[in-house]
Structure formats: C-alpha cells, structure tokens
Amino acid sequence: MASSSSFLLLAVLLALVSWQATASDPSPLQDFCVADMNSPVRVNGFVCKNPMKVNADDFFKAAALDKPRVTNKVGSNVTLINVMQIAGLNTLGISIARIDYAPLGQNPPHTHPRATEILTVLEGTLYVGFVTSNQPAPNRNKFLSKVLNKGDVFVFPVGLIHFQFNPNPHKPAVAIAALSSQNPGAITIANAVFGSDPQISDDVLAKAFQVEKNTIDWLQAQFWENNHN
C-alpha cells in the first residue's frame, strides 16, 4: 500500500511539473530565433529569421524608457517592449514595460493571459492589488493589496485581475514591469466588457451585474480608451 501511494504521489508530481513546462512560452531549441516578420508562414509565435542574416539590431531598440510619457484620461501610459518591437525576443519568454502614472492616475484592472508580471517602483508610491480566481466560499475571489514605495517589488500571478493606482494627488509615479512572455497580452476589464466590438448584449450584462439595462447602455456609450502602447 505504501509503495502504491508513493507511486501515485510521484505520478501527480510529474504531471504538475510537465504542466508547468507547457504553461508558458515554449523554450528555445537554439541560441535564438529572431522573428521573421515578413514570413507568410503562421505558427505559434514567429518563424525564425535565417541566423546568417541576424545582426545586433535584431536584439535592440532605442526605446527611451528613461523618458516620461504622456498619460491618458485614466492617468496612465504603458510602454510595452515585446517581440513586436524587438524581434530577438521571439521564443525567449520575456518582455518589459515602462508604466507612467499621473497624480491620482491608475493602470485600471486588467489581466495578462500569458504572463506573470513582476513590478518595480522607480518613482513615487503605488497602491497595487490582485484578485484570485473563483474559489468556494468563504474565500471567493480574495483581494490581496499593498502600498509600494520607491524600490519596492510586487508580483502579479499569470492571468489574475490586477491594477496599480497612484494615490498621490501632486506627484506622478513610474514603474518598470517584467513579464514572462514575449507577447503577454492585456485585457482591460472595463474595456473588454463594455467596449467590445460588437457590443455584448445589454440583457446579458444587466443580468450579470444585476443593474438596469439603461445603466449598461450608458456604460457602453462611453469611450473606453486603451492605455497600452
């Protein structure tokens, strides 16, 4: 019986390890696979450029991430450097972003469907948090939050709804985020729900949010601005 239990435990552990191995960007099978953006072939990621034609510029971008950005009406600007900006990131499973926050600005609730995010505050103060996935009562959708100061680091697990907010009414804030995918994706919750094209039926949303349909119609009529560049 003990031997059988040990075998079962080993099988479960191996299954978890193998699942983790497939839950992120695929590992490279060579030194690099610079994305060939001109190839007509469509794969999960990008076809490799001929390595004999690769040069240093394939791994470089003059991104000026040290320069402040103009924020939008929600008070933030996300400057993402992923495989679309640096072709050499293809298959390497990483990207980076500078996030600027106006006074009282926020990077509104959103998710990255393909990446865990680790955020470092460079300037100012941020109130940040994320919400866990649906769980049985009494721990349904637990909210975890923290106030971060300059130099502090916080992790947002892959796929979970999270946000950052600058509570200072007088000073901006800046953060740098590293993400565990060459193309992490971003789904801003309000934009996706109320600003989709075509729109989600107001009957569906009124039932989901337990509000009147005219409230949903008003929300859908707003301009849902994207803060990701």
Automatic annotation (TrEMBL):
GO molecular function: manganese ion binding; oxalate oxidase activity
Top-level taxon in the UniProt lineage: Eukaryota
Entry GO terms, CC: apoplast; cytoplasm
Pfam families according to UniProt: Cupin_1
Residue ranges of every copy of the Cupin type-1 domain listed in the record: 60-217
Record-linked SMART domains: Cupin_1 (SM00835)
Catalytic activity: oxalate + O2 + 2 H(+) = H2O2 + 2 CO2
Function: Produces developmental and stress-related release of hydrogen peroxide in the apoplast. May play an important role in several aspects of plant growth and defense mechanisms.
Name the UniProt record assigns to this protein: Germin-like protein
Species per Swiss-Prot/TrEMBL record: Aegilops tauschii subsp. strangulata (Goatgrass)
